[in-house]
């Protein structure tokens, strides 16, 4: 369970459930004990009243004055019984009818089976009256009391369940309010991943997670500075080597017999161009936006039109004045990608090249196709294979497409090379998520 909210909810639910369950058991036990104490107190009072109702004639057996005892003891099987033993004489309540209470050794006996299988609580007492010992048993059916106690416990349990549910709902509201800053940070991280913002917003952040936000922002700043520094260093190095290489090439051209030097200089120049392109490939960075796609593509098309005047380049940009394209990508990367695609298409196309750019819920879709000879399927896989060096690529399409593949890979995109169904040449489909 990775959700903090679920952990808090489960912990609180478990605590509340255990608390209310124990509370229900304890209250139910206390109610049962209190009911039994009240019953014993009432039976003790009845004992006193029954003993006071005894009549002791000098020349006759002991008897009970019915008018002095509660009438409940007169009704058969009423659940209230008494029995008095005096020197072999047995006096019983009318409620016992012809039955007897079982003999008891304890002063208080519970769960004693009585008339009609009633469960009785029996209170026993031995007293001396008129110099005669008598044993009095008073009993009451405890089944109704137990039913009432059980009903009360169930009601208490239902109330506890309702209280737990209400408290959980209230706790859920509190947790949502407490975790609202985390939700905002999660949304910001998602926007950061899409390149919509350069840094996390540290305003209105709880002090417990404020240091984490600051550390993330600091790491992002360091990453951006290092990336820019690396790109600048590689660019400066490449430009600083170009002048001496140009001079060396001119010297090599004046010495046509030195073919080995010429090949090595070509190799060095190719590697410099390769590394310079790689240095310009930044990959997706927070805050990057490409909002000038239409103008940038138009500039590329104009430039290629001067180099390849026989090529007709058609461009379709899926945007309007009300909804211009806003692509979360580095502008230099996109210019490098489209420049290589369109240059390859113009170089190998006969007279037609088509470029399409659109954006949907899946990401940015780029398609470039030409009416040239295309590329054989077995060669396409080798061109796009990761780790292919520029100087090992297939001549013509290889260098440009390997650069394109590297940029697409930096953006976790998809690159497909197929035959164009309309122009019959090569069709390059790119999806940048």
Strand order of the largest sheet: 4-3-7-6-5
Order of helices and strands: HEEEEEEEHHHHEHEEHHEE
The level-1 CATH class of the largest domain: Alpha Beta
Strand percent estimate: 15-25%
Task: Round the mean pLDDT to the nearest integer and report it.
Answer: 81
Specify the biggest β-sheet: 5 strands, antiparallel
What does this protein structure show overall?
The protein is α+β, with helices and mostly antiparallel strands and 433 residues long. The chain has 3 domains: 4-147, Beta-Lactamase (2-Layer Sandwich), CATH 3.30.450; 195-280, no CATH class; 288-432, Histidine kinase-like ATPase, C-terminal domain (Heat Shock Protein 90), CATH 3.30.565.10. 52% of the residues lie in helices and 18% in strands. It is built from 8 helices and 12 strands. Strands 4-3-7-6-5 form a 5-stranded antiparallel β-sheet. Strands 8-9-10-12-11 form a 5-stranded mixed β-sheet. Strands 1-2 form a two-stranded antiparallel sheet. Strand 9 and strand 10 (363-370) form a beta hairpin. The longest helix is centred in the middle third of the chain and has 52 residues, at 143-194. The chain starts with a helix and ends with a strand. Mean pLDDT is 81; it is low at 386-397.
